[in-house]
Amino acid sequence: METLGKEVLETLIYGGVGLIIMFIAMFVFDLVVPYNFNQELKEKNVASGFIIAGLFIATAIIIRTVIM
């Protein structure tokens, strides 16, 4: 049981750190790219949604690789 608790805690920590890194990546992406993604998403621009989804997927793959 002790091992299960440790694994759950590690999973929560890695998940939290991963989310923080994803939000930082989105912030940096917004600074670097001269395009207002938030406004485009409000106007239901699907292409902007795909770009942001790709950013999150790519960041998640990188985080997973580093953790493994």
Strand fraction equals: under 5%
Ends: how far apart? 23 Å
> What is the total number of structural domains?
1
Mean pLDDT: 87
Fraction in helix: over 70%
Low-confidence stretches: none
| Number of contiguous helices | 3
Oligomer: single chain
Q: Topology as H/E string?
A: HHH
Query: Which class of secondary structure composition applies to the elements?
Result: mainly alpha
Biggest β-sheet description: none
Number of strands: 0
Global geometry: elongated
Radius of gyration over C-alpha positions, nearest whole angstrom: 16 Å
Features:
single chain; 68 residues; mainly alpha; 3 helices; 0% strand; elongated
Explain what this protein looks like in three dimensions.
The chain is mainly alpha-helical. It has one domain (2-67). It has three helices and no strands. It has helices spanning 2-32, 37-42, 46-67. Helix 1 packs across helix 3 (46-67). The radius of gyration is 16 Å and the shape is elongated.
